[in-house]
């Protein structure tokens, strides 16, 4: 005689007869569509094992009936891509950097290639898109230490700045006016006030007037008579609101006392001729190129 199935008093669902520590298992089978889908995936996986490489073997792995090899396919796709790029890369190599920008198709390719090179080599310091970060200058505005024309940008990329490796690197050093005793502390304070006055921020008019004389005698030869900067010397403008090491009085005084001097590696010899040209074009087209 068949035993009548027990039903759970709370849910009304039949139990399986299994019980653990007073907890009874309910007989809630999975929906049939789910079970059939599960079986179908098992069948599909078996078919996949047969058609494609899958099982490890002593000499490598099973090749599969179709003989598919994604590594070979990838290498072929890369070879095809290189062949398509070769025409443009050769043309960039043979073309003067400034002339690249006059060819719309060549310009588009150079900017795309330069962006890749920039992300791989320059973005860790100058930020993505040349936005700048910390004491590394932005390359997307129109404020340039050594000039923003494309030939000037290319030269800087090739030879770098104060790197001690390339004899043609851009190199101009600001004296330590305070640490070396060139200026007295009160003269530094006066110069700070004068520099602040260039952007209408001076708090001591008398000191600023005295600082104008000190500035003319010690600073104008590099930074210009009105603090407009001299790009050929890598001397920044002081009459705008752009500061690399900070524009607060204490920061300006620290820079006069013992200046921080940036260093940039020379990329000539590290990157090939085409990559350097594409980098120069990319940076020149970030928005601040002159």
UniProtKB/TrEMBL annotation:
Pfam short name (any one): FixP_N
Subcellular localization(s) per the UniProt record: Cell inner membrane
Protein name: Cbb3-type cytochrome c oxidase subunit
Organism: Benzoatithermus flavus
Cofactor: heme c
Transmembrane segments: 33-52
Keywords per UniProt: Cell inner membrane, Cell membrane, Electron transport, Heme, Hydrogen ion transport, Ion transport, Iron, Membrane, Metal-binding, Oxidoreductase, Repeat, Respiratory chain, Transmembrane, Transmembrane helix, Transport
The Cytochrome c domain, residue ranges: 109-199, 206-287
Gene name of the encoded protein: ccoP
Domain of life: Bacteria
NCBIfam families named among the record's database cross-references: ccoP (TIGR00782)
Subunit structure: Component of the cbb3-type cytochrome c oxidase.
Pathway, per record: Energy metabolism; oxidative phosphorylation
SUPFAM superfamilies the UniProt entry points to: Cytochrome c
Family to which the UniProt record says this protein belongs: Belongs to the CcoP / FixP family.
Job of this protein: C-type cytochrome. Part of the cbb3-type cytochrome c oxidase complex.
Gene3D superfamilies hit by this protein: 6.10.280.130, Cytochrome c-like domain (1.10.760.10)
Residues making up the signal peptide according to the UniProt record: none
Cofactor note: Binds 2 heme C groups per subunit.
């Amino acid at each position: 005689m068949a035993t009548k199935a027990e039903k759970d008093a709370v849910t009304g669902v039949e139990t399986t007869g299994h019980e653990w520590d007073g907890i009874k298992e309910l007989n809630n089978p999975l929906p049939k569509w789910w079970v059939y889908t599960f079986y179908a995936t098992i069948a599909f996986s078996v078919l996949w094992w047969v058609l494609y490489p899958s099982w490890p073997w002593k000499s490598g792995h099973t090749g599969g009936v179709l003989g598919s090899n994604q590594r070979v396919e990838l290498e072929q796709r890369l070879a095809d891509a290189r062949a398509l790029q070769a025409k443009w890369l050769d043309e960039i190599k043979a073309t003067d950097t400034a002339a690249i920008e006059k060819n719309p198709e060549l310009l588009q390719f150079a900017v795309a290639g330069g962006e890749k090179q920039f992300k791989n080599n320059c973005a860790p310091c100058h930020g993505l898109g040349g936005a700048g970060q910390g004491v590394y200058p932005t390359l997307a505005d129109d404020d340039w230490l050594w000039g923003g024309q494309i030939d000037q940008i290319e030269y800087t990329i090739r030879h770098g700045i104060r790197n001690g490796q390339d004899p043609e690197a851009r190199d101009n050093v600001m004296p330590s006016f305070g640490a070396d005793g060139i200026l007295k502390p009160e003269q530094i304070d006066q110069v700070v006030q004068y520099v602040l006055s260039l952007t209408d921020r001076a708090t001591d008019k008398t000191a600023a007037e005295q600082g104008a004389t000190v500035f003319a005698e010690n600073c104008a030869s590099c930074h210009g008579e009105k603090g407009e900067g001299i790009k050929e010397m890598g001397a920044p403008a002081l009459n705008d609101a752009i500061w690399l090491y900070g524009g607060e009085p204490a920061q300006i005084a620290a820079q006069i006392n013992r200046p921080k001097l940036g260093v940039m590696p020379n990329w000539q010899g590290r990157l090939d001729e085409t990559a350097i040209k594409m980098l120069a074009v990319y940076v020149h087209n970030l928005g601040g190129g002159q």
